Amino acid sequence: MIPLMLDLSAKRILIFGAGAVGVRKARHFSGCRMTVVSRSLSPDVFSLPQLSIKQMDVADLEDDNLVKLIEKHDFVIAALSDAVQNDRIIRLAKSAGKWYNCATSDDANFLIPSTVSGDEYTIAVSTSGRAPAVPRFIREDLEDRYEGLDNMIRLLASLREQLKTTVPDQEKRAEILRAVLRDENIRQRCRENRNADDLVAGYL
Asked: What letters, b where the CB count within 10 A reaches 16 and e where it falls short, cover 46-61?
């Protein structure tokens, strides 16, 4: 698997299953147009944006009707509690040439990583399903370790633009930015949501 950051806002996501697993996977695609197909619906599913709900039992659908539904979407996620139906969905998604992911097996051509994100960043972690506890551990550690990271990113982005007009040497600019990033006083100001312009001025 090759990690990528992709803009999927124009893609259509099809998720089978609206229990805890299905909702968790759906939240990862927030901002995309999604269709959720499930016999029973968790109340949490109604909080998801841009969501179309089809309340039906997949087992009652003939393959032809299921294929028609799959063909209208770009990504297919099988997150039902019924592994047999999940396998059926994945088989049809493969035949249709879709991106697919299965909650009850390793049969997938894309993975959904554990993520840590803010307004200015996203960090993704995956062990390819081999040790699910590890990405969660790393995610929780990063959330604690990098409190205030949004503020630091905004600060560095602004400083970088200033340095482009005052420091012609690119390596020197990079050195200054690294020094600011390592400055514990500046990092503390960022964690406390306080202005650090006076400290940054010392690097200009």
From this structure: eebeebeeeeeebeeb
Confidence at residue 56, expressed as pLDDT on a 0 to 100 scale: 94
Q: Mean pLDDT across the chain, nearest whole number? A: 93
Measured CA to CA, the distance from residue 152 to residue 154 in angstroms comes to: 5
- Read off the pLDDT band of 16 (50, 70, 90): very high
Please state, for a pLDDT cut of 70, what percent of the chain lies above it: 100
> What does the CA dihedral 193, 195, 201, 203 come to, rounded to 10 degrees?
0
- How much is the pTM? 0.82
Say which residues have a Cβ less than 8 Å from residue 186's Cβ, sequence separation at least 6: 152, 155, 180, 196, 199, 200
User: Which amino acid, one-letter code, is at 163?
Assistant: L
CA–CA separation, 203 and 198 (whole Å): 10
Cα gap 120→99, rounded to integer Å? 28
At residue 63's C-alpha, the angle toward residues 57 and 66, to 5°, is: 60
Q: Helices (H) and strands (E) in the chain — how many of each?
A: 8, 7
* Residue 78: predicted pLDDT: 98
Distance CA 50, CA 31 (A): 7
Work out whether strand 33-38 and strand 12-16 pair parallel, antiparallel, or are unpaired. Answer: parallel
